[in-house]
Amino acid sequence: MFEIRSMTMEDYDGVIQLMKRTPGITVRDADSRDATRRYLERNPGLSFVAKIGDEIVGCLMSGHDGRRGYLQHLVVQPAHRRKGIANALVKRCLGELQAIGIVKSHVDVLKTNALAHSFWDRQGWASRTDIDRYSWIGNGSANA
Predict the structure, then answer these.
(1) 126-134: long-range contacts at Cβ-Cβ below 8 A with a sequence spacing of 24 or more?
(2) How far is it, in rounded angstroms, from Cα 105 to Cα 16?
(3) 60 secondary structure, DSSP code
(4) Which of 4, 83, 102, 133 meets the CB 3.0–4.6 Å disulfide criterion with 97?
(5) Which SS3 state, helix, strand or coil, does residue 133 take?
(6) pLDDT (tens digit per residue) in 26-61
(7) pTM greater than the 0.85 cutoff
């Protein structure tokens, strides 16, 4: 059985290693230790890890801008998929966001990540066709 608990900075190394080992997950400069610390401090109690024993087997980070929630980095170790871990992480994040008044949330999925598209489709999330996401990179790094 797995346990879901709030993510802390003590989980950072385990989460980053999980992300690096998981196909379809991209680790960027914005996932640095300092950036993750700022994110967790700005969005306390909204990011979660799934553990089996002492091992981190899943993670989902979430935050908000005061109006909308944003889910990021849903990752479950391939050997532990289809056990309800991803569903439990999503439910926990959305529940915590709703508890503070955030009722609409978004998730970005790389166009090449068919597995993630399939997951979010099965969960009933709507793929948006009415908007496009634009990004501006202030430091010029392609990996920002």
Answers:
(1) 133/108
(2) 24
(3) E
(4) 102
(5) coil
(6) 899 999 999 999 999 999 999 999 999 999 999 999
(7) yes
